[in-house]
Amino acid sequence: MPDNPYGWLVTVATRRFTDWVRSDAARRRREDAELPATPPSMFVAAPADHPPAGEHDDTLTLLFLCCHPSLSPASQVALTLRAVGGLGTAEIAHAFLVPEATMAQRISRAKQAIRKAGGRFAPPPPGERADRLRAVLHVLYLMFNEGYTTSSGDALQRPDLTAEALRLTRLLHRLLPDEPEAAGLLALMLLTEARRDARTGDDGSLIPLAEQDRGRWDRGLIAEGVELVTATLARTRELGPFQLQAAIAAVHDEAPSADETDWPQILALYELLERVAPNPMVTLNKAVAVAMVRGARAGLEIVDGLKADGRMARHHRLHAVRAHLLERAGRPQEARDAFRIAARLATNLPEQRYLRLRAAAPASGED
User: Fold this and answer.
1) Is the entire prediction scored with pTM above 0.90?
2) How far apart are CA 357 and CA 203, in angstroms?
3) Taking the mean position of all CA atoms in its chain, how far away is CA 276?
4) Least confident piece of the model among 20-29, 299-308, 347-356
5) N or C terminus: which one in the chain shows less Cβ crowding within 10 Å?
6) What is the DSSP string of 175-212?
C-alpha cells in the first residue's frame, strides 16, 4: 500500500492519460499524413497491362527491409513499429516494457546491422522473397499478439498495437492480394480482434472465451474475416498456418454459444495445423480440443507430455490449461495447485488475478 494512495492513483492516472493523449496524437498525425502523401494515381485503377503495385510500393519494400534476416525477431518488431508503423521510440519502449534509452539503442543497432549486412532499400532478390515474406508475416503476427495479450504489465490489452498490426496487415494484403498466408493472417486478426471488447470486464478483469458475452463481439469484423478466410481456403493449393488458425477462429466466432462450438471440427483443424507447423503451443491448444471431444483425461495426457519440453515447462499457459482440465476431470485440489503455479509464472497482471481467483475456489467437475 503506498504511503499516499490518493496521490499514487492521481499520478498513475495522469501518466496513463498522458500516454493515451500522445498515442492518439501520433495516430492522428499518421492518418492526416497518409492522405496528402498518397499520389492521385493511387485512387485510380491501374491499366490492365500495368505491373502490380505491390512490386514497387515503398511501404512493402520498407517492411521487407525491417525484417532483414540479420535481425532478431524482437529487433524486427521494434524496427517495423518505428519505421513502418510510425510509433515513437517512447511508445515502442512502453510496449516492450524497457526504458526509452534502451529501445533507442536497440533500434539504432538494428539499423547498423542492416547496413553492415548490405541491406538496401529495394525489394529482396527473388530467391529471398519467400523467406522475407514469412518474416514480415511473423513480425506482424507477433505485433498483434503483444497488443492482444500483453506479455507483462497491468493491462491485458494494447489496442493501439493491435490496430497498428491490423492496419499494416491490411496494407500488405492489398499490395499482395494473391498471397494466401497474407490473407490468412488478416482474417485471423479480424476474427480475433472482433472479440476484444468482450475480453475484459468494466474493471479490466479477464473474461475467458467460454464466459464472454457474444453480443459484444463485432459482427462486422467477423463477417469480413469469415468471407476472407473462406475465399482464401477455396483457392489455395497449399494450406499455411495462418490460414488454418483463421479457420479455427472462424469456427469459434460463428458458434452461437460456447456449448454449441463445433469442437470436432476445431480438433481436425488443430491436427492439420500440427502437421503443417509443429509447435508446442499448437499442441497445447489441440489438447483443449481433444478434451472437449474425447474427455479431460485424454487432453491431460497431451498436456503432461508437454511438461518435458523446456520451452513450455515454465510457461503459465501450460499450467493454466492443465488446471482447467484437472477441474473437468474432477480433481479440484490438483487443479488448485496448478492454478497457483500458473499465477506465479504469469507476468500479465489481469491474467495473474484471474488465475489466483481460480486457485482460491476452482470449480469441481467430472469428465
Assistant:
1) no
2) 15
3) 19
4) 20-29
5) N
6) H-TT-HHHHHHHHHHHHHHTTGGGSB-TTS-B--GGGS
